Each structure stands twice: as structure tokens, then as C-alpha cells.
Amino acid sequence: MAAEQGDAEAQFELGGMYYAGQGVPKDDAKAVRWFRQAAEQGHVEAQNNLGVMYYGGQGVPKDDAKAVRWYRQAAEQGHAEAQYSLGVMYATGQGVPKDDAKAVRWFRQAAEQGIADAQYNLGVMYYGGQGGPKDYAEAVRWFRQAAEQGHAEAQYSLGVMYNTGRGVPKDYAEAVRWFRQAAEQGHAKAQFNLGVMYAKGQGVPKDDAKAVRWLRQAAEQGLAEAQLKLGAMYAEGQRVPKDDAEAVRWFRQAAEQGDAQAQFLLGGMYAAGRGVPKDYAKAVRWLRQAAEQGLAQAQLSLGLMYAEGRGVPKDDAEAVHWHRQAAEQGDAQAQFRLGVMYTLGLGVPTDGAEAVRWFRQAAEQGDAQAQFSLGLMYAEGQGVPEDDIEAYAWINISVEQGDENARKARSLIEKKLSPSDLIKAQERSNEYFRRYVPTPVRD
């Protein structure tokens, strides 16, 4: 028998037969034995296969260091797959210390031999600046080579580059072309992006039916962002008939994957009884999950549930806790509500100065209620020295934003001002209006 006589090719072929169970019972241990004998004679395919066996723990205990040893021997003989595998080991720190520069070196050698996975990984390394300087143009070059071989992840990545104008001029039509190729291979993120492109009419004529079709395919594969998007479309009746039950179904799937926005929206559906029976306890459960992930909207809503005793026992201190977390993230409504709680001493000691601090932060973001409240603090000298000019300035811009409750207060303050002070107050109010009232966004 040639293998037993030391013929390396015969040893390699016999190892392959044991590995595949061709003509002999499948036996990974025997496959390893024959691959090893061939590999020790320098048989490059056997060296690569032996690396694979050690990496996967097939026929031998899993041993990444030995996998690296055999991959390296094959790679140094120019074996493209072994070069790619060795690059992976360096990129992930398996069997060797993590070393992005060496990963790039081996990926490049494999990529230049046409290994699509290596081309894609090399693109990723250039995109992220791993193992060398960040270079979007070079990332595009390698993504394209892999994409043209049908590599779905590379097709998606190339679509992203065209969609964002990184490494190439922004080109929505070209982005659509590559997203479509990846999407047709079942790539969920590409399906999602293609759906968004159809919804916006970017690179393709706007087409709601096609947008929904691609978003649904991504959602059915479990992509949380697609589930969230589809749920929002059903909740709002955008591009599909309004259907709260269907919205809840998709929000729940995304929420169960930990998507904070979906958890927040699902909590809102339970609180409002939309698509599900009204259930404040379940609303609190989902709002809490989103709030604990740091979503300011959910923190505000959870604070309101504690303030009002819905789904949880009324607890002003807990309401303050959640409002504060949202307020510190810049949520204007939470800042306003926190100001109210300091004004009234709900869950915290009464503190006019602290109330003013939070009203001011919200007011400077354009919140009309906070502007009115800040004006009242100046009018009454709570937390700040009494100042009717400053009071008028803030209350007036609240009135200009449509707060009818502020109109009466403005009239009362106006009567207290001298003509010259009224002019000063109006000038200051105009300045605040320019600085602190949001400009309406046109569709």
C-alpha cells in the first residue's frame, strides 16, 4: 500500500477518505493520522487539513496553537486557504497573540490569490484602521473584489460605502445595486437597507410595496431594526394599513431581542391599550427594560408611571430618579418635570435654585412649559432674584409658542413694567426667541 510505504500523496488521499467516509468507515482520528504523515513530508494540502482538524477538534483535542503551526507551514508554501485561516487566527488572537498587522499580511496574501473571505476581511481591516491606517478607498477595492465573486457580506458592505460616500462618491443607485445582490442571497441587513431605499426613493423610484416586502424579509429573519421599523409602520399606518396588533407583534419580536426602542414602544402600546388589552404593569415591565438600557424616552415614561402610580405603587422618589436619568441625557421634558418636582418638593426637598436649573436647561431647548415656569420663578423670586424683565422675556416666548396659560401671566407682568423696562423686556425676549425657539422643520 503506497500510503504505508510513505507516499505523501497517497497518505493525504487516504486521510481524505477517512475524513469523508469514502470506501472506509468515517474516522477522524485515522484521517488525522494520515494527514499528519503527509504533512510531515511537506504536503501542503495535508498541512492545511491538519490545521483544520486541530482548529475544529476533529480526531484530536482542539488545540489552536497546533492549528496555527500547521496553517503556518501551509501558508508559507503559498496555500491560499491556510493564509486566510492564519489571518483569522491573528485577527482573533486564537493560538497566537492578537496581531492585526500580521492578520492583514496573511489576509492580503490570500486575497491576492482570490480568496473572497480574505478580500472581504482585508476590506474590513482597512475600513476600521486595524493593522494599518484607515483607508476607505482601499476598503472599497477589496470589498468590490469579494463582492464580484458573490460574497454577500462584501456586497452589503460595498452598498454601505456607496450609500455613505466613503471611499467612493455617494451613489444611491450603485448602493441599491449592491444591496439588492446581497439581499437576494438572504442578507438581512441588505434587505433592510434596500427596504429603506425603496421607502425613501433613494436610487430607485419610491415604492411602498417593495419597501415593505424587503423590510418584512429582513424582519422575518430576526433583524431587530427591521422588526422595529415594520412595527412602527403598522402603528402609524405608513405604507401599510394601520394595524396595532401587527405593530405589537413586530415590536415584541424586536423587544425580546433587547432592542431598547422597541421595548419603549411596546410599553407604550400596553399603556395605551393599542393592539393589546391595556395593562400598566406590562407597560412598566417593558419601559423598565428600555430605561435600564439608558433610553431617555423610556426613563421619562417610567418616571411618569411612578409619579402617577400606574402599574407600580405611586413613588415620587422613584419618579425623580428616572426623570433625573433622562434629564441628564438632555431630555427637555424630563428636565421640565424634574424642575416641577423640585418646585413642589415631590420626592425631593423643595429647592427653588435646583428647580430653576432644570427649568433653564429645558427652556433653552425650546420647551414652552419650561420657559413659562422659568419666567414664573423670576416673577416670584423663587430660586433666583426677582426680575420682571427676565420673567417677561421667558413668558413671552412661551406665549409665542402657543402656551395659553402663559398669556395671562404675561399681561400681569407687563402691567408692572415701566415703558422703558417693557422695551428692554421685549428686546430680551426677541433675543431669547432667536436663540431658544426651534425653527420649524419643513417636510
Automatic annotation (TrEMBL):
SMART domains: SEL1. Signal peptide: none annotated. InterPro entries: Sel1-like, Sel1_AlgK, TPR-like_helical_dom_sf. It holds the Pfam family Sel1. PANTHER family: ERAD-ASSOCIATED E3 UBIQUITIN-PROTEIN LIGASE COMPONENT HRD3, SEL-1-LIKE PROTEIN. This is HcpA family protein. It comes from Iodidimonas muriae. The lineage of its organism: Bacteria, Pseudomonadati, Pseudomonadota, Alphaproteobacteria, Iodidimonadales.
